[in-house]
């Protein structure tokens, strides 16, 4: 076997094994050295082949961005080198607005653009939810109504020339979106499974797909929670975009914006510059942090 290092892209992560795509298009099943398993889908790496279809990751190249989520115990890398997060919502079943906020905060903290997709717009009456999402449009987030099973084309311009990670609760129609964007996705999934000799879908797997030469899509497992324990207090308050003009203007330098007197954020809610619901989400997260 050649000892030459080959450039690769992590296109699938299954716990301790990774699917790595080489520049010639081949997919190799890779492990990391030792106990290190700190790679994410989207990572650019250098690998050494140990067999025709197996290799070892020797080097991780610097990341442009890294999206995290966490639970109470540890942080988990969701995707790397992404330029935007596409948050998929639907009204059937209903979505958790708190989860939407957590995704937006994680995106802001990672310096990544966020697109909010309201899927399944062909089912039921979505006018109330669309009106509610206008609060987020006012904050500068892109809102795209969609019915992925009828017509995926409204989403395509947002994905062009981006590396997007698709996140959402289970049941929001995320896989319908992936299948509509990639009609041969089933085939691709099987290829990856065969390469990794897993033969089954594991719930922890994330996959990267090429939409075209300039656009990639990373599908991530359905979320039921989205922990933000990896953020510190400063990152958290800055992740609420509409808070930024008011930060540093509270009476106390170390104001937590909970019940402190002369808090600029609480005043901004009174003056309707900040939606009350957003400050409430912030306060809940700030309390979780303590
Ligand atoms: Zn304050």
Condensed summary:
It contains eight helices and 13 strands. With 290 residues, the protein is α/β, with parallel strands linked by helices. The protein folds into three domains: 55 residues, OB fold (Dihydrolipoamide Acetyltransferase, E2P), CATH 2.40.50; 154 residues, 3-Layer(aba) Sandwich (Rossmann fold), CATH 3.40.50; 57 residues, Probable gtpase engc, domain 3 (Ribonucleotide Reductase Protein R1, domain 1).
Q: How would you describe this structure to a colleague?
A:
The protein is of the alpha/beta class. The protein folds into three domains: 6-60, Nucleic acid-binding proteins (OB fold (Dihydrolipoamide Acetyltransferase, E2P), Beta Barrel), CATH 2.40.50; 66-219, P-loop containing nucleotide triphosphate hydrolases (Rossmann fold, 3-Layer(aba) Sandwich); 233-289, Orthogonal Bundle (Ribonucleotide Reductase Protein R1, domain 1). Helices cover 27% and strands 28% of the residues. The protein contains eight helices and 13 strands. It has helices at 97-110, 127-138, 156-159, 174-181, 185-196, 233-238, 264-270, 276-289, and strands at 5-14, 17-22, 27-32, 44-49, 54-60, 66-70, 75-80, 84-90, 113-119, 142-145, 163-168, 206-212, 215-219. A five-stranded mixed β-barrel has the order 1-2-3-5-4. Strands 6-7 form a two-stranded antiparallel sheet. The structure holds zinc ion. Zinc ion is lined by residues 250, 255, 257, 260, 263-265.
């Amino acid at each position: 076997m050649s000892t030459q290092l080959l450039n690769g892209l992590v296109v699938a992560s299954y716990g301790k094994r990774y699917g790595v795509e080489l520049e010639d298009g081949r997919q190799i099943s890779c492990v990391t050295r030792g106990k290190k398993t700190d790679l994410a889908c989207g990572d650019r790496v250098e690998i050494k082949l140990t067999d025709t279809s197996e290799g070892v990751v020797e080097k991780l190249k610097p990341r442009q961005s890294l999206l995290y989520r966490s639970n109470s115990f540890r942080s988990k890398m969701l995707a790397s080198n992404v330029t935007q997060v596409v948050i998929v919502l639907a009204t059937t079943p209903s979505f958790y607005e708190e989860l939407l906020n957590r995704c937006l905060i994680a995106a802001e903290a990672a310096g990544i653009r966020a697109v909010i997709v309201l899927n399944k717009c062909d089912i039921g009456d979505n006018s109330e939810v669309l009106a509610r999402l206008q609060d987020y449009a006012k904050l500068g987030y892109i809102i795209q109504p969609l019915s992925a099973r009828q017509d995926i084309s409204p989403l395509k311009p947002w994905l062009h020339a981006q590396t997007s990670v698709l996140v959402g609760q289970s049941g929001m129609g995320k896989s319908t979106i992936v299948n509509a964007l990639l009609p041969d996705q089933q085939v691709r999934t099987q290829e990856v499974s065969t390469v990794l000799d897993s033969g089954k879908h594991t719930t922890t797997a994330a996959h990267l797909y090429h939409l075209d030469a300039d656009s990639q899509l990373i599908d991530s497992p359905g979320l039921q929670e989205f922990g933000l324990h990896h953020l510190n207090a400063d990152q958290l308050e800055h992740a609420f975009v509409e808070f930024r003009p008011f930060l540093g203007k509270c009476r106390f330098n170390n104001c937590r914006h909970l019940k402190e007197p002369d808090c600029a954020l609480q005043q901004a809610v009174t003056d309707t510059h900040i939606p009350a619901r957003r400050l409430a989400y912030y306060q809940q997260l700030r309390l979780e942090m303590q």
